[in-house]
Request: fold
Amino acid sequence: MKRNIIIFGIGHYGKNAYWKLKDAYHITAFADNNRDVQGTFYEGIPVVSGEELMHMNRGDTDIVICTRAYYQIGTQIFDMGIFSYYVMLEGFLYHTDLNETMMPVELCKASYLRKRDGEKNILFVQNAACIRTYKIAKAMKEEGYKVYLLYTLAPPYAAYEEFADIYEDIWGFSSANGILDFISNSDFDIVHCSNEPDILVNIVQRSNKPVVADTHDMQSIRSDTDFDTLVLEYLANVNSDGVMYTSAYGANIAKNKYRLDEKKVFYVNNMVMEQASVSQALPKLSASDNTIHCVYEGGVVGNNKESHRFFDEMWKKITDAGVHIHFFSPSSIEYCKRLEDISSLIHYEGNINGEKLILEMTKYDCGLAVFNSVNNNKFHLESASPNKVYEYISAGIPVISAGAKSLKEFVEQYHVGIELDFSGDIRKQLEEACKLHIDDDFLTRNNMTMKSCGKELAAFYESIKQKQAIGCR
Reply:
């Protein structure tokens, strides 16, 4: 691929392609057919119309199409006389010209990993490493493992720059062949591969290394899952040497659905790494105005009323009771701003994470874990393990749950929150909830930190390694 590139598509795939390619290539422009984004900039790079490509000097420039509508875009630029272009989806790169169609291209030229005598290591594989992967990697590092990361879609610094330094090395690959060659010829003890989607799990299963499939999100219990996704999930579960889930509920569904051997199944909740110290807790906002200030952290969805993260109606009911909602979210800034239009008591606070977020949340009175439970998404909600619940507790604030029976049982069993009844007096319920006291060592004392699971996690990995070693004799 030439040194200069134009990325066609400024959506999800285009932005991630920018973060993956920006260090090795000069991205001169984005192109997009959406008139609403034409004339804008992303990371200082202009967004032009697709038609403008005809008038640009492209002699030393390649075009990388980053949209699922790549066939239509390919036809569009072919009609402009552009017969050679690339397509990048999920971080996988393909080349098309007059002689070949969608030919895989590998950009990574990394040498195979060679480990030292006595070294134990784990390769974490994910399209874009998330907080859960980071926490598990850190826990394993503290147990004496060398931890490495292989990604396809975007590097850690695209979203969680502070987490990148946990890994001994990080590689970005752009083809299935490249991934398999690198893993099979390197000295990795075990591969921990995370889903959504299950594409990478099915690829790394073809290597000669034991694979643990970490199912962050079971797709088959969603209401809108297509058949291809169901097949990928089946293969990911039955063909992996070990499988991991985020909750006991999810693990039990998988065991029954795929007839999995109990010994290859493990679950670990999306807990905090360790209980944060909030000795320097921030002053409560409610101390200055005598009103309740709730906080929510996580994704929000505005274009799908079937999503468990569609909050418009629920948040309207809460704010109608005179309660403030402050939220931190990595979702579209445009939609986050639109949520503020629902009520003057809804406040978008930006996007931060980790210990900074936990400290920031100490100034609120309670944390919202209320979800939009409709149709089949109720099964998905029961299988989930929301990071936010443990982070609220780490911040010392009570949890307000709704929409998930498992969360209701959790907050009531441990007296760390309430189940909100939207048909009752919302303000009165929240006032009572805010009186609950959360001990500073609650998570540590109840072994609800990723650090407390370290030895059990290590034992699971070792059992999977041993099982494969016996099978190969």
About this structure: Residues 286-445 form a domain with the Rossmann fold fold (CATH 3.40.50.2000). The first strand starts at residue 4 and ends at 8.
